Amino acid sequence: MSVHLEVYNQIRPPTQLFIDGDFRDAASKKTIHVLNPATEEIICEVSHAHKEDVDLAVASAKRVFPVWSTMDPLQRAGILYRIADLIEKQKEDLGRLEALNNGKSVEAARDYDVTQAATIFRYYAGWVDKLPLGEVVPSDSGHQVIVTRQASGIVGAIVPWNFPIMLTTWKVAPALAVGCCVVLKPSEVTPLSALFLAKICKEAGLPPGVLSVVPGLGSTAGEAITTHQDIDKVSFTGSTEVGRRVMISAASSNLKKVSLELGGKSPNIVFDDCNFEDAVAGATQALFLNMGENCCAGSRLYVQETIYERFLDALKSRVEDIFVGDPFDRNTSKAAAEGKIVNGPLINKSQFEKVLGYISKGQAEGARLLTGGKRVGSKGYFVQPTVFCDVSQNMSICREEIFGPVLVVSRFKDLDDAIQKANDSAFGLAAAVWTQDAKKIHLFTSLVKAGVVWTNTYNIVKYNAPFGGVKSTGFGRDLGKDALFEY
């Protein structure tokens, strides 16, 4: 028996839809293959939700919403705290399950993704009895004006495959905290941790119907959610292309509220007065965290021309030290324990071929391949960490989101040039600047068009601070107090 099959058999996650507090087959009895990207083999089959199943989930949510939304705040908070405790208690199984289904290392899944999932539930549990639900606003002496805020109702949450359990909690926890019910569609590629979370929620005492989990394709379960007349709000994380379709569906149905966290092509700016070693390490981590399958990845690296060649030499050495391997291989765990960046496989064949296609396109467009560029091994969707340099602004690899381990590097002259190049993108999720000059930091953070800006660091996402973008990256915010007002 392979180690992967052994892990699955030890955990045995649910594989049916979770509707009205119970696991059940899809009405159509159809299923979806779930693959292990490290081996290209089928892990299991999960039920495939269609419109009929979404209708059942929404109907159960409608029945329970009046009870859940008016429940004593401490009682509702208590359930969310129990969910957090159970996630923490079962983080080893959840981490291994996420690694098996998604391809990231067990250590990254357990110690970051699952740990943050528990933290998110605890954070929003703490808000339940402190929600700013109303205020009295000034008026003339004969009137009193009271403003109240109420839960939106039924939320459709659609989550991608790159951080499955973590991004699920980003949406589910604040929605439940304010009193909404949630119909969750995890990616059909990575549904296992969401179904495991449903099992946890049931054990924690979440009333039937408050959360349903309906894995399925975007064209089946996804469309059923976005067009449903009784869903009041959709929160979507995914591609810009699909985000546009979500908006059209929301507008053409019942004008439901929408929040979107979409694509990114984030600029990472390195000035010559930076802490050099920190900047090299930060630029490497900014892109190659999670195999580059990260919406806020620092995929456009701009280095000031005075240190450009020196920086490339150091960057090449760092990138070539990244360990690429199966999440369940002992050498992978050893590399993670040594503090190395660890890359697993890309999520599936489609993404694998897309990334290799961009690598070919970069070479054809005239970018210089500094390192990487090839498949690793003959089994699994592994790609070498890849760096292109001397990249011009009009190249496809500079303008389009690759969503893989491909970093593009360009040079810039001064602050004005850096800001112009940073803003020369359709996207606006994140940006970063590396310098010891406070004036440059102030000007850059003021003028760059991005929802999140880091200074002398990257990929620091805090549970109590809002996260989201501008331009074609979408609108609305996850995390922090701001997320409560989305629901």
Describe this structure as you would to a colleague.
The chain has 487 residues and is an alpha/beta fold. It contains 17 helices and 23 strands. The strands form 7 sheets. A 7-stranded mixed sheet has the order 16-17-18-13-12-20-21, with helices on both faces. Helix 6 links the parallel strand 7 and strand 8. Helix 1 crosses helix 4 and helix 10 crosses helix 11. The radius of gyration is 23 Å and the shape is globular. The chain starts with a helix and ends with a helix. The model has no long low-confidence stretch (mean pLDDT 97).
Class of secondary structure makeup = alpha/beta
* Span between termini: 46 Å
User: What proportion of the residues is helical, as a percent range?
Assistant: 40-55%
**What proportion strand?**
15-25%
Biggest β-sheet strands, sense, barrel: 7 strands, mixed
Low-confidence stretches: none
Radius of gyration: 23 Å
Topology, number of strands: 23
What average pLDDT do the residues reach?
97
What sort of overall outline do the alpha carbons produce when their principal axes are compared? globular
Helix run count:
17
Question: In which order are the strands of the major sheet placed?
Answer: 16-17-18-13-12-20-21
